């Protein structure tokens, strides 16, 4: 990761970027850059984490505090941001000619995709930031908050999202992915692979999917059944809650 100092001039319609705040960690990140705005002509990028505004530290500050600092700025604003560097993944072009194609053995012992099943209670944040690198390589997780539901479920920095609830993200846009993982209550299942695993499967000509045999499944919760009820408890000690779910019904709090 690296820090970047950026100056954004103000126009009659503002600076031209939006900011979201992760409520738990109070990290402020650039969520939107408007076309043809002053921000769009700088090297500010979506998912940049804002550390300072006009030399004032805004880390661990509320979203309202950050908004006030932006409103105070006239003429231009000076931003110090932290940027996560995503490792480039080489593209592998497979031959359509069977005689020329090469099939490499898949090493599932050292290269294992993961299905991370995450339980969410009362609309808490998953604790991840996502960027779309390019149409070929898909969506990257660039930051995982420590002890967040995603962290406990085994999501790691630079993981590549391949499926959400067994649905491929290939044809999804950025907004579709955000909507798919935005749940208020219940569970979401995310198929991920680290960059080396992703490259290994592509070089072998194999596609990663949740239907693969012996795929690793990780959870941030535990479940057990008793009679007609399914009990679920969050395994993260910071968020221990007990719920019970009757098959076919929504989760209800005890």
UniProtKB/TrEMBL annotation:
It comes from Octopus sinensis. GO terms for molecular function: protein-membrane adaptor activity. It is found in: Cell membrane. InterPro entries: NHER, PDZ, PDZ_6, PDZ_sf. The keyword ATP-binding does not apply. One of its GO terms (cellular component) is apical plasma membrane. The keyword Oxidoreductase does not apply. Keywords: Cell membrane, Membrane, Repeat. One of its GO terms (biological process) is protein localization to plasma membrane. Residues 5-85, 122-196 form the PDZ domain. This is Na(+)/H(+) exchange regulatory cofactor NHE-RF3-like.
């Amino acid at each position: 990761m690296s820090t970047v100092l950026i100056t954004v001039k103000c126009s009659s319609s503002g600076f031209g970027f939006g900011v979201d705040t992760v409520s738990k960690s109070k990290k402020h990140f650039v969520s939107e850059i408007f076309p043809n705005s002053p921000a769009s002509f700088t090297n500010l990028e979506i998912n940049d984490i804002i550390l300072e505004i006009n030399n004032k530290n805004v880390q661990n500050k509320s979203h309202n505090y950050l908004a006030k600092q932006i409103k105070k700025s006239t003429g231009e604003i000076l931003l110090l941001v932290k940027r996560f560097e995503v490792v480039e993944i080489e593209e592998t072009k497979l031959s359509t000619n069977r005689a020329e194609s090469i099939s490499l053995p898949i090493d599932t012992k050292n290269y294992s995709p993961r299905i991370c099943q995450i339980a969410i209670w009362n609309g808490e944040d998953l604790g991840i930031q996502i960027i779309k690198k390019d149409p070929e390589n898909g969506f990257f997780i660039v930051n995982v908050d420590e002890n967040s539901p995603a962290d406990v479920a085994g999501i790691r920095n630079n993981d590549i999202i391949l499926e959400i609830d067994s649905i491929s993200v290939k044809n999804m846009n950025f907004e579709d992915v955000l909507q798919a993982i935005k749940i208020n209550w219940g569970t979401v299942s995310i198929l991920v692979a680290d960059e080396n695993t992703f490259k290994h499967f592509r070089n072998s000509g194999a596609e990663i999917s949740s239907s693969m045999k012996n795929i690793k499944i990780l959870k941030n919760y535990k479940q057990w059944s008793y009679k007609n009820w399914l009990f679920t408890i969050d395994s993260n000690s910071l968020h221990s809650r007990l719920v019970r779910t009757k098959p076919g019904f929504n989760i209800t709090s005890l």
